[in-house]
Amino acid sequence: METSKLNLTRKWRSQTFDTIVGQDLSVRILKNSLYLDQLFPVYLFSGQRGCGKTSTARVFTAALNCQNLIKFRQDPKNNAVPCQQCESCVAISQGKHPDFVEIDAASHTGVDHVRQLIETTTFLPQMGAKKIYLIDEVHMLSKAAFNALLKVLEEPPLSVVFILATTDPHKVLDTVKSRCFQLFFGPPPAQALLKHLQQICEKEGIQAEVAALEVLIREADGSIRDAMNMLEQVRFIGSQVTVTTVSQALGHISDQQIIELIDLSLGNSPQLAQLLVQISLADKNIEFVWKRLGELLKLLVYRKQGVPIQVSASLLESLDQIVNKSSIRELISFLSVVVAQEQVLLKTAHKALSLELFFLQRIGVFKSQESMELSVPKSSIIQPDRDLAPEGTLVADDLWQQFLGLLSQVPDPILNSVFSRVRFRQLDMQGQVQLELEQRYAFLTELITEKQLAWMGYLKQVFGNDAGIKINLVVDVEVVQTINDVKSVPINGSSEKLHRQPVGESKQIDVSDKSKWPLANQILEQFSGQVYEVKGD
After folding, report:
1. The pLDDT value given to residue 240
2. What percent of the chain has pLDDT over 90?
3. Are 76 and 158 members of one domain?
């Protein structure tokens, strides 16, 4: 196959140590071990997808069998490995080297495959000095396969080198990892990846804007392979790779549009609905919009706090326009709402509709607050007795039910159970949601505080950005009715009647001191209620 027919990822795969992107430490370790002739029988390369693990393994394999390796050890500055010219290096680049065996563990998970591999390790190398086995995605091997591999990994033949690669090192048995020399591959720095893409564009004759490549790098999230695949996709949309063509290909909306959504949301502006229609979220990548929304809100919070942020001048100007008219409390509140609803958005089947509803609710919150202020007199807001509160307080009750409905979407049954124990009392003039909690459940207040991140966003979404919760511990007063009639029950089959005396005055007893009231506390642990002293007439 001609190289011109290969896609960019395969065509520009690293062939030498110098072309490996963003893995300077791992490359230095491997080159030093080659130079010092101190090799390990088993290597474990771990890191996220597309960061260069298998490419580095192939380069290392080529260097191990390169005919120029002896000269490299004598004079490393003037002799590079792999040389890419000797018979072994050419065979590796063409995928025809008899001493290099690459195995995909995802499709060879069984113990039988491993046993066949072990049998081949007894054969001597045919072309090079080492017979090298690269097992990709090694964490996919079954436990039985791992156990079968243990012995050969511990004492492989001198002519054999194993390179294990994985994106999930936690799934590799500790007994296997203890026999490996481990190298960790992190995501390449953004500047190193940008330089790499610019070099490819120059060699391929692709005209690309730096801002467009930066968007690709951000979307790739540290994966070199993903960035190159996206670059190749975008190059066929237009004659140039621009921010616009990248957005079209990936279903993105611009940072400016997201900033405008944030601005209108913070202002509770009705124009927010018009902007949503104009953007048409149904055609967009919702996960990207949500992720970028959170990133920009975080930048707004940092900017408001005076923390330096590295963004373009135009983006900084747009952010400052919001920062200058928003409080830090409003920005953090909005960010907390986004974080709280992330799991709900990711799990729903109608992501575009859910995101649109999320923004439209910002208008709803404004209208609900306005309606509440008009319909609830101030005297009723601070009314200490709920039974005497006027009908206007039902608006606040409805908002509390709306909050509970949103909270029920959180996949945390404990949190929902805790909030089912509290009773809504009122919304005071300071915007605090006054709640009542029976004294016996006082320990739940600490749990509510610990899980604040999960519910605070919903609370502010419903009751406004200044909303908070104040929990008042109360005694659960039960109505004790006086039994005036005489009830009878048969005793031992006779017609004898049991007479109950009318209940007289009752007084609640404080049994919180467990050392003084051990039996009462044991009963309360099994049955809900309060302890009363009842005196008969």
Report:
1. 87
2. 33
3. yes
> What's the whole-number mean pLDDT along residues 122-126?
90
CA dihedral 446, 448, 449, 454 (to 10 degrees): 150
Same domain? For 110 and 122 the reply is yes
- What number is the average pLDDT over the span 160-170? 94
Highest mean pLDDT, choosing among 301-315, 412-426, 463-477:
301-315
Higher-confidence residue: 351 or 496? Answer: 351
* Whole-number Å distance between alpha carbons of 255 and 104: 40
| CA–CA dist 230, 235 (Å, integer) | 9
The answer on 114 and 50 residing in a single domain is yes
Say if 369 falls within a structural domain.
no
Distances (CA, A) of 303 to 87, 114, 308, 328: 58, 55, 7, 10
Backbone phi, psi, residue 47, to 5°: 170, 170
Please, where are the H alpha helices in 243-350? 243-250, 255-266, 271-279, 286-304, 313-323, 328-340, 342-347
73 and 14 within one domain: yes
Give me the pLDDT at residue 535, please: 55
Strand-pairing partners, residue 131, are: 160
Hunting for tokens 């049991």 — which residue is that?
498
Alpha carbon distance 66, 129 (integer Å): 9
- Cα 150 from Cα 173, distance rounded (Å): 10
Write 186-189 long-range contacts (CB < 8 A, 24+).
Answer: 186/22, 186/23, 186/47, 186/48, 186/51, 186/222, 187/22, 187/48, 187/51, 187/221, 187/222, 187/223, 188/21, 188/22, 188/23, 188/51, 188/52, 188/222, 188/224, 189/22
Residue 165 pLDDT > 90, yes or no?
Answer: yes
**Does one domain contain both 321 and 469?**
no
Instruction: Write out the two tokens for 339.
Output: 């974080």
Q: What pLDDT, on a 0 to 100 scale, did the predictor assign at position 438?
A: 84
Could you tell me which residues are beta bridge partners of residue 161? 132
CATH number at residue 58: 3.40.50.300
What pTM was computed for the model? 0.60
Q: Round to whole Å and give the CA distance between 166 and 188.
A: 17
CB 226 within 8 A of CB 220: yes
Domain carrying residue 313: 255-354
- Contact of 474 with 437, CB cutoff 8 Å: yes
Name the nearest CA neighbour of 88 among 133, 128, 147.
Answer: 128
